[in-house]
Amino acid sequence: MRRSMLRRMLFVGALLVAGVAAAGGAVWSQAAGTGRAAEPARLAVKGAFTRVEVQRLPAQAGHSWVRGTALEQERGKSKGKVVALGGGDEVIAAVTGSLSPLAADSKDGSTVVYSSWRQLSRPQPSGPKVHGQGLKPGDPIGIPSVRVYSDAAGKDRLVATGAYGPALSLDGRLAYVRGDTSTLRNNVDYNGKIVVGDVAGKSSQVWTSESARYFPYAWVGSTLIAYKSLPESEAADVYAFTGPGQSRLLAPNAFVVAVSPDGSSLLVTVGRRMVEMIRVSDGAIEASLPLDGNGVALDSATTPHALMFAGSWYGNRVVANSDVGLVVLNVSDGITIESVLKTPGFPNGITEPTLVDDSHIVAWAEVGAAPAPGATDEAAYDNALVQCDLAAQSCGIASVSPSRTWARWVSNPSR
Amino acid sequence: MKLVILSLTLLVVSFSVPATASAYQWFIYWRNSSLINGQIDYNCSGSTCNSPLYRAGSGSGTNACQHNNWIPLGSYNIPFHQDHYAGSAIQGRVWRLSDYQCSNGVTRTELFIHSEETSSNGQYCPTGGDDPFCWENANDYYSNGCVKVARNPVTNGASDLGRLDSWVHSIGAAQWLDVTS
Q1: Is A150 part of any domain?
Q2: Residue A199 domain boundaries
Q3: A5 Cβ under 8 Å from any chain B Cβ
Q4: What pLDDT digit, counting tens, does each position of A37-48 carry?
Q5: Spatial CA neighbour of A356 closest among A51, A62, A49
Q6: How far is CA A70 from the centre of its chain?
Q7: Residue at A347 is within a domain
Q8: Is the pTM of this model over 0.90?
């Protein structure tokens, strides 16, 4: 509560400064338009991606990727090698989804840490007599694990069973959550503690005394950025962890959209419709963009209702998936919406978009038709690697795979 | 003789089951391709309901197999219902839903039907902003994945949440929630 008050005071202070500036004729810097009442995306470039399926994307020559249990190494000493991952488990991030990358690599690409999963339950399709996927509270669902492949060892190795959410720092520190139990169970909170060690597994320390639903995301130097879920909710607070028992609340009820290139700031969504740039060192709000301010129609087709977590930041641009398409933000002077690009053919948009330069992204996407009216369960979408040109508004897709065979770039949001 | 006993048993069982418990004990939530313009209903047979539809919302994004996004299509058990739930994130009249595992393996958890009210079913609106236990406006239909119904306005003595809750108490308990597109 005290942290929240401090943030509010900082924000009020920022508004006062903005108010003084406005008296001198300055414009409202948070909106992309011409005044406080302008819809944030009013002046944004609007468009739609075209999509073409290709055998291989240009980015697949320089970025490693995972498809099912195969790691295609395109960096490090084993460039060009296909490595078998998982040790018999699936290579999916069942606990975190996109809150943490499926697989993250070291600076030189020679080490890859990743999530794996052993499915125990057999969820049933919904039907007149099948509710809750045929499972009872407490039924075992699966066992998550954290694993690592390194060129040095030349093999894939289990780091911990009953663990998830690996985050690898640029200096080789590995953080993950060790569950209080190894098995995730239906309708039972899967709590655990954050553990930090080296990739070799020679030493590790527990950084949190309290068990909770944590989700490590990225390192900024020696600071770990991680979520702590709120009880009875999939909402989370964003924390900076700096050592055993040492943490700071950075943003309450928030998700990280992107980490700045120098690691000094995060772009986060706060609450439901506020975008903020916050300073990692003290949580101060450096800029904000309300998506629900005056002038924004509640059902606007162009202003995103919420930005998705797991976007990226390159130069002055941030990209993020949203419910209205891919959103490109400019953060050079406040936060403005530069482009809103619809993603036809991608029923859930372009996920985990990573800017590789000013105008190109790599990402993954689900492909296929959206659920038909009256569908009784979510569609089992195929998924694919994606590479898009923002200027040409075109995307290539490759490595299309069934829903359970995840195609993902190996990436690392750590700075 | 066995047939007579069986018939008598069936007769006793049929009289002991309330008439309202026949086939009308679940909620249906229609996502309607919208985060905040979905609809919820009860007292339904199949997908035909005998009560007015109530506006409802779910999630802060439309990828059902990501945390915090709208609730996946499916049929959910309701492990418990409380009128005075005193959680830290949600309070008051709530229905807990079963977890859901998507076909890609991602698990969705901590799902509820709820509104924004206090554990004593009141409103706590200390700031001019978005207070978690205060229904301010239609933006409150956004959620972290749960299904949300309005706590205000109260008309004819009940809000949408109140009407859902009254129905549930009139039949004993809601058995499940069907989420459809």
Answers
A1: yes
A2: 2-19+26-409
A3: no
A4: 467 777 788 899
A5: A62
A6: 22
A7: yes
A8: no
